[in-house]
């Protein structure tokens, strides 16, 4: 099935017990056992829940994988993947990853004896140069957060596999509509379901998908043992939202492309970070491995302009963290999403204090342009 059909009919899309065309919400913590010591399919919702199984099956289908796992947040999904590492292992990750991912690696995993090297993963040679004998994982964000750098997933995966390391892709910014990393050789794909998968800024979730049976067994054990599973209610909400994922992301793509082209020619904008702009370093590889360029972009205003005044003077764009919802959001990474990264590290990796990140929603494009125009005019 094509993607647009798969979101409606892929995985478990109805209730096998009743035939209801919408999967039921099994709001239960435990299940009655028919016999002592029997092999029951459901015992306790931390381990098994039909509503969660349904959304996990759909996510596996959308990512073209075999095994899907749903977690209580995107960071819970990241943590589950990182738990595959052990003390003494080495990790390679992007130098402009999401601030929460950096905090987990730098402040928690590092204390447990897991070392890391942050590099520009768009540079395959830099990944190769960072490899060590104990490197067990290459963690890629593509497009990255917040600079929208695009990594050649197939090339980076080949480097990882040549050193017997897992290749993991955070697919949050792209969504499976725009990009399917498993098809490009990645071992694991994960995403914050809070963003485009949920799409309405009303639920929090995270997903991990793989086609590797051994990796799936490990993730299943981690999910069961740590227990940060997605609740039945949240599982239902995400599966409901997935049915419109293709329609929503198409509009996100269209609006973001139009805004990127418009802002790229605006006199008060110094730079636009968007992989869909021809002539940028990320454009060619994005065009090759992505179906669409996504709804995320970042901009830098001209020197001397007041970033704070700009973001606070908008009306349609709301000043808020998160992304991927139907409404347009705007934020300043240095103060908000990436504040946990030391300033000198942020600046070294190109995340300036003046950088503004924009999540382009699905509103009317002229209304979005008008709102940004009046915000820029106020400077």
From TrEMBL:
InterPro entries noted in UniProt: Cys/Met-Metab_PyrdxlP-dep_enz, Cys_met_metab_PP, PyrdxlP-dep_Trfase, PyrdxlP-dep_Trfase_major, PyrdxlP-dep_Trfase_small
UniProtKB keywords: Lyase, Pyridoxal phosphate
GO biological process: cysteine biosynthetic process via cystathionine; transsulfuration
UniProt EC number: 4.4.1.13
Keyword Lyase listed: yes
Lineage: superkingdom: Bacteria
Name of the protein described by the UniProt record: Cystathionine beta-lyase
């Amino acid at each position: 099935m094509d993607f647009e059909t798969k979101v409606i009919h892929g995985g478990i899309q109805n209730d096998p017990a009743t035939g209801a065309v919408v999967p039921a919400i099994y709001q239960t913590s435990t299940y009655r056992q028919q016999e002592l010591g029997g092999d029951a399919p459901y015992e306790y919702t931390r381990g098994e829940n039909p509503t969660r199984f349904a959304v996990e099956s759909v996510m596996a289908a959308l990512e073209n994988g075999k095994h899907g796992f749903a977690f209580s947040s995107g960071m819970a999904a990241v943590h589950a993947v990182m738990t595959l590492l052990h003390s003494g292992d080495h990790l390679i990750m992007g130098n402009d990853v999401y601030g929460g991912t950096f905090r987990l690696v730098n402040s928690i995993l590092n204390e447990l004896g897991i070392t890391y090297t942050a590099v520009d993963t768009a540079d395959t040679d830099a990944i190769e140069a960072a490899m060590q004998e104990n490197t067990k994982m290459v963690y890629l964000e593509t497009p990255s957060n917040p600079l929208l750098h695009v990594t050649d997933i197939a090339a980076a995966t080949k480097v990882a596999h040549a050193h017997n390391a897992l290749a993991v892709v955070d697919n949050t910014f792209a969504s499976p509509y725009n990009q399917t990393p498993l098809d490009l050789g990645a071992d694991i794909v994960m995403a914050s379901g809070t963003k485009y998968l949920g799409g309405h800024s009303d639920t929090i979730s995270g997903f991990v998908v793989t086609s590797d049976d051994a990796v799936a067994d490990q993730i299943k054990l981690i999910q069961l043992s740590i227990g940060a599973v997605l609740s039945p209610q949240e599982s239902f909400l995400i599966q409901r939202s997935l049915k419109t994922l293709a329609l929503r992301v198409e509009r996100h793509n269209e609006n973001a492309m139009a805004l990127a082209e418009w802002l790229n020619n605006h006199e008060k904008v110094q730079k636009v970070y968007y992989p869909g702009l021809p002539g940028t370093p990320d454009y060619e590889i994005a065009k090759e491995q992505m179906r669409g360029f996504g709804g995320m972009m970042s901009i830098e205003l001209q020197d001397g302009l007041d970033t704070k005044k700009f973001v606070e003077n908008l009306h349609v764009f709301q000043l808020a963290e998160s992304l991927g919802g139907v409404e347009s959001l705007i934020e300043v990474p240095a103060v908000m999403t990436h504040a946990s990264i030391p300033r000198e590290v942020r600046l070294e990796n190109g995340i300036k204090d003046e950088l503004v990140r924009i999540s382009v929603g699905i509103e009317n494009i002229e209304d979005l342009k008008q709102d940004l125009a009046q915000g820029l005019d106020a400077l």
